[in-house]
């Protein structure tokens, strides 16, 4: 025992294949899900209309976005407490990611989204959910080789 605090168990992210160039990102919420699109070459993200639906209605709207944008992969924000501990919404976001993978057959990458909504609100975003999805996607894109 080292006396160090326990770190959250992080899932090991697969490498992002070089041919993956376009991405759709989601900031999952129970009532609203922020959406952003972006690409690897520019390493920028653009907000899209927030999905204001739950359950199957949410997935119908996700399907429309995937059809429209034809992304190579998806990115989801996974929330944690400031100390890195998981909570109910962490599990909900991870489940959403599994559902996306299962329903659409696309690879899903996870990004630690701590403070993304706070940052979006502080920047004066009109749609904090879409702005948060942009922050999540830009963080993901910045970390690509």
Question: What distinguishing features does this structure have?
Answer:
145 residues; alpha/beta; 5-stranded mixed β-sheet; 37% helix; 23% strand; globular
Quick rundown:
The chain is α/β, with parallel strands linked by helices. 37% of the residues lie in helices and 23% in strands. The protein has four helices and five strands, in the order βββαβαβαα.
Tell me what the structure shows.
The protein is an alpha/beta fold. About 35% of the residues lie in helices and about 25% in strands. The chain is built from four helices and five strands. It has helices at about 55-70, 90-105, 115-120, 130-140; strands at about 20-25, 35-40, 45-50, 75-80, 105-110. Strands 3-2-1-4-5 form a five-stranded mixed beta sheet, with helices on both faces. A hairpin with a 5-residue loop joins strand 1 (about 20-25) and strand 2. Helix 3 crosses helix 4. It starts with about 20 loop residues before the first strand and ends with a helix. The model is unreliable at about 1-10 (pLDDT under 50).
């Amino acid at each position: 025992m080292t006396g160090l605090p326990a770190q959250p168990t992080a899932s090991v992210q697969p490498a992002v294949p070089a041919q993956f160039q376009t991405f759709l990102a989601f900031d999952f919420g129970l009532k609203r899900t922020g959406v952003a699109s972006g690409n690897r070459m520019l390493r920028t993200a653009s907000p899209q209309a927030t999905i204001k639906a739950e359950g199957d209605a949410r997935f119908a709207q996700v399907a429309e976005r995937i059809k429209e944008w034809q992304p190579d992969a998806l990115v989801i924000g996974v929330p944690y407490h400031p100390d890195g501990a998981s909570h109910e919404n962490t599990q909900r976001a991870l489940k959403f990611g599994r559902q996306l993978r299962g329903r659409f057959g696309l690879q899903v990458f996870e990004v630690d989204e701590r403070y993304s909504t706070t940052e979006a609100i502080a920047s004066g975003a009109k749609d904090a959910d879409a702005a948060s999805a942009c922050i999540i996607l830009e963080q993901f894109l910045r970390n690509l080789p």
